[in-house]
Structures are given as structure tokens and as C-alpha cells.
């Protein structure tokens, strides 16, 4: 609840944070402007601060501020958006979008974005609206392909994310190398707060998980490594029965699919083995980042059976790092250069094997999946893959038309130069060979962590 004391204290703290940030230090913000961010975030000062930085990032990146030229305001298309003259019974303002009335040949998509932001910013100067909020009606009557063609992933993300609070910010962030050999303070905190791990709970749930596994005839004779079991407990946020069931799924996969034990060494020097890269730097939230460049895989050079084994080698090896167990993966699927040569292996059974083995059987936390170079081939793949996905995974999929759109999610300083980033792509050959050597020793006992 806001009080005069809390308002004054929150404003003081917010100004202090903004003054300490090089992006905002020189800006003399209006009190009313800052109060609106405090109200939006229920006086959580750090959240208000972060959202202002997001707005500044948007201001630097998008040419959508400053209103629209006056001549556009008399056009019929400018009437597609209405802020109703009366409020709802709960005090909310109501915005009505009638997209069928918008003619992109008369009122460009760029002018539409500018007008939308202008109306929202102006409406938010009213304290009644800051406090009570908006309700939004999207009327799609009359919408045709004329409007639909602008509903690209980029534009939809701009409307939903950037105009709310979730634009990428990396100010002041120190990016970590993939392998650092210890758990950072932030990882330990995430483990405690998000994964609910404490020393007492760790000991208790490990004991319970071992008990469940010893009771099951499929797993009773296996002396699992403690680190291996810990990966499953972390993946399932210490829900022991869920971890138990996931281990049983892995055992079933081991029994039914010949994809364990590494690949033949001679395949590791082939160009096709370079189709997958685990980047040397972690993301801004400390996730590990894979890039799969499917157009670089030649099935006549690296057989599909070897590819399946290679994927499992890399995933299991990466999951021996506690930083990755806790923070998870992000995966970029680059479909550029892909043809029917690769597509013919995207059968429902192969796609299910890929999804089931990586999502349902491995103790991996997947935070985001990005698909770029979208084409008609992707639409075929998506039609097969989409029904298999859980809603949780489906909501973590992002579609992009080009590589540049990745930089709304990933900073350039961790991305390879071939994608427009800053880092020179380094060879993973030695890492992959070592991983393959160690994974050839893989049994259902698992393996110890790196540290």
C-alpha cells in the first residue's frame, strides 16, 4: 500500500539507482514520471528501475517515439485506435483496437507503432489510469492478409514485450565464460530460491530418491552417482517423484534406443560435426547457449544415427557442469541452408525421439528455443513438432525471420561474428573429442560433475 512516507522513500531510492547508472545518470526525471513506474511495479523499486532502463533501451533501438506527423491524423486509418470516453465500473480506461480499419498503404506500420506509443504515453499521464490500469479490446473484424502480413514475430514482440517491461537489458552485466569451475553467488541464490535447494533438503530428498530407485526393479541394482541424481532433483525443483519418473524414462530410453556411448572418432573431424556449437560465453542470465546450424549437417557425411549419438554426448557432457544444471540452456536452431536433404529425416518418429530424449529424459532446464531463417521448411517441421510440445515448452519458443532479430534476446558480446556478434568463433573440436571419450564410459550410474 502506498503511503506518503513510502512514496518519498521509493522515489529517493529510485533516483539513487538511476543516478548510479551511466545510461540514466544525466537525466532529470519528473517525479510524476517516476511515480508511475513505482505504481506499475507496486513500489518494488528495483523492478521500477529495471523497467525504466528497458524503456531507455527501447528508445535507443526503435524509432517509435515523438508522435506522428500531423497530416496522418486526419486519415481514416488513424481511427483504428480509440480511447473510450467513459471508464469501466472499476475505474479502468478502455482502449479499442479495430484492426480492420487500418490500411497499411495509407498509414504505414511505422506510423502505427508511433501512434500506439503516443496514445499509451499520453493516457498514462492521468493518475487515475496509472492506478486503475487499462482494459484492451482487440477487434479483428475486417482483418485480411493486408494487415496480417505485418504480424511478424519481430512486430508482435515489439508490441507485447518492448512496450511492456521485458526488453533485453545488459547494462553493467559481466558475462561469464561457459566453464568457470565454481558456482557463483547468483547461482547459489537461484538454487535456493528458485530450485528450493538447501543442505537439509538436499540430504533428505537424495535419500528418498535413492529409496524409490532401489524399490523399482528397473533401477534397483544401479549405484547412481550422487551428482547425477542431483541433476534430476534440480531439474524438477526437488519434486522427488518427478525426478524418479524422469530417471525411469531415461532408463527406458537406454533400453529401447541405441543412442548412448558416444560416436565413432573418425566422424569428429568431418565438417558436418561442426553443425552444433556450445558458445564459449554464457547469456546474461548465465544460461549455456547452443547453436544448431542444421544446414551445415550433411547426412551423407555424418549419418543420422551418429548425429543422434552426438547430440546426446554434448547434452550429457554439458550437464556435468552445476552452473548449467542450475541456470539451464538456451538453444538457437538456425535453419539457413537447410533443404530436403535434411528435412527427410524430420519424420514424426525422429522428431518425437529428439523431443522425448532431450526434454523428458535428460535433467536439463530449457529456458528458450529460437528458430531463425524461417521458411516453408520450418512450417513443415513446426507442424510435426508443435503437437508434441508441452504448453510450457511451446511458450518458450521464439521465431525469427533473420539473424539480426536475435539481438533483442542476446547481447552481441556473446554471439559469433558470423551472426553479427563480437566473438570469433572458436573450435569446439578438442572439447567434443574429450566429451566423446568420457561419454563412451557412460552407464546408467551417470557421471560425476566437473567440480
TrEMBL record:
GO CC, alphabetical: membrane
CDD domains named in the record: SEC14
PROSITE patterns registered for this protein in UniProt: CRAL_TRIO
Stored Pfam families: CRAL_TRIO
GO MF entry, a single one: phosphatidylinositol bisphosphate binding
Domain called CRAL-TRIO: residue spans: 266-427
PANTHER family: ALPHA-TOCOPHEROL TRANSFER PROTEIN-LIKE, ALPHA-TOCOPHEROL TRANSFER PROTEIN-RELATED
Protein known as: CRAL-TRIO domain-containing protein
Source organism: Larinioides sclopetarius
